[in-house]
Structures are given as structure tokens and as C-alpha cells.
Specification:
The protein has about 250 residues and is mostly helical. Helix content is about 70%, strand content about 0%. The protein has a domain at about 65-225: Tetracycline Repressor, domain 2 (Orthogonal Bundle), CATH 1.10.357.10.
């Protein structure tokens, strides 16, 4: 899905929808394109209609206002992210499942930075949107928690613990990707290797947190040096017990 707008245009081209359905979808594609370029605050219905090549009045046949189309388009974007993220994780080793998922999200954030920024904007501005995003995220995190429990051989253990772990790991990935590709923090965005290196580093940290060991070195291409980030074992101090002379009887 790298470029979400391109993904939507391909969907439209291969669809067999009626004229009205196609017009409505064209408006959504245009809204996604404009959102990615200017953000929610600067989004204008007129700009959406211009890109979709429809009359201004046609817009209001399908949507109430810009907040409705923006919320619907971005919720669809979230659904597409989670659906394709799940598909990326299927098959391969435990580390490959983590790596492929993070590679997908890293590439998606890089290619759709404007949309990801809009997700955060709308969560702050529209309470109903925030609640719907929260529910979608919770379902995603529950799937991560079940996967981690199953892969570590603890499927019957406390679900609450694995859900907390999923929140922590997903939060690490979101924050790092957001700072790297959306906020473009200089320290992070200037690093060599692009999204694949970013994904691999996050996957090493995820794997260590989950399995308490390093991933196989043979499965790493960009971050083998990360395996050296460990504390050397500390020798136990020798017990020094003071010996007292035995008293003669």
C-alpha cells in the first residue's frame, strides 16, 4: 500500500461500481490527497471538488461537510493499515513476523506522512473520531497480545499482561516512526538506511523485549551492531566470611 492515494486510485480503476458510488469514492480519494498535502486545518471542500473534478454542489449530495469526509477517509486509512499490517506478519520465523510488520508500517508512514499527521490532528479536534480510533487500535493491540502470548508459549497466561506489553511495544514503534517520518526529527531522519533500517532496529528491540534474547544474526541486514548493545555479565562478588579461631575447650 506504500502510497495510499495510489492504492485508492487502483481500487477505483478495478471496481465495477455504479456512477454514484464512483463519484463518492472519487471525492474520498481527493480528500485523502488534499489532506496529505495541506492537513485538516487547511482542507477546503472547494479543493476536494477541484481534484475530484465534480461540481461543488455534488459534494453535499454525499457528505455534510469537510469533517465528515475527512473522518471517514482517515478511518478507512486506519483500517487499511491494520489489515495490511496483519497480512505482512503471516509466515516466516518469529523475528520475520515482527520485521515484516514493522517494514510495512515504516514504509507506510514514510509514504503517507501527511495522512498520519492528520490522524493525530483529528483525534485532538473531533471526540467521536478519537473514540473510534481508540476502539480500532484496541482491537489491533489485542491481536498483537494474542500473537505474542501464542508465540512465546503462554497462550493460557494472563491476557492483561500481554495487552500491556502490546501497548508498550506498539507505542515505541508509533512514536519512533512518527518522529522519524512525520516530524522529521533531524537526529532520526538523517540516518542512513531508510525505512528498512528503521524497521529492523525497532524489530530487534521488539524481539528482545518479547523473547529476552537476540534475534538470529543471520536475519539482520542493517543493524547487526545493535546486537552488541548489551551489558557484560557482572561476576558475583566473592563472599568474604570472617573466620574466627576455634576456641579450645
Amino acid at each position: 500500500m506504500a502510497d495510499y492515494v495510489a492504492h485508492l486510485r487502483t481500487t477505483l480503476e478495478t471496481s465495477a461500481w455504479r456512477k454514484g458510488e464512483r463519484t463518492r469514492f472519487r471525492l474520498k480519494i481527493a480528500s485523502v490527497s488534499v489532506l496529505g498535502e495541506v492537513g485538516y486545518q487547511e482542507l477546503k471542500v472547494a479543493d476536494i471538488c477541484e481534484q475530484a473534478e465534480v461540481a461543488l454542489g455534488t459534494f453535499y449530495t454525499y457528505f455534510v461537510d469537510k469533517s465528515e469526509i475527512a473522518a471517514e477517509a482517515l478511518l478507512d486509512f486506519i483500517d487499511a493499515l491494520y489489515e495490511q499490517g496483519r497480512s505482512a506478519a503471516r509466515g516466516g520465523s518469529d523475528f520475520q513476523a515482527i520485521l515484516r510488520t514493522n517494514q510495512f508500517f515504516a514504509a507506510a508512514y514514510q509514504q503517507n506522512a501527511g495522512l498520519v499527521r492528520c490522524l493525530v490532528q483529528l483525534e485532538d479536534l473531533i471526540p467521536d473520531f478519537r473514540e473510534r480510533v481508540r476502539e480500532k487500535r484496541l482491537q489491533w493491540l489485542k491481536k498483537i497480545a494474542r500473537s505474542v502470548a501464542r508465540r512465546t508459549g503462554h497462550a493460557d497466561d494472563s491476557k492483561a499482561l500481554f495487552l500491556q506489553l502490546a501497548y508498550a511495544l506498539e507505542g515505541m514503534v508509533f512514536t519512533y516512526l512518527y518522529d522519524t517520518f512525520v516530524r522529521r526529527e533531524p537526529v532520526l531522519s538523517s540516518q542512513a538506511g531508510g525505512s528498512d533500517r528503521v524497521a529492523e532496529l525497532l524489530s530487534v528491540l521488539w524481539y528482545r523485549a518479547t523473547y529476552c534474547q537476540d534475534p538470529p544474526e543471520s536475519e539482520l541486514k542493517h543493524t547487526r551492531e545493535a546486537l552488541s548493545l548489551r551489558r557484560e555479565p557482572v561476576a558475583k562478588p566473592v563472599s568474604r566470611v570472617r573466620q574466627f579461631p576455634r576456641r579450645s575447650s
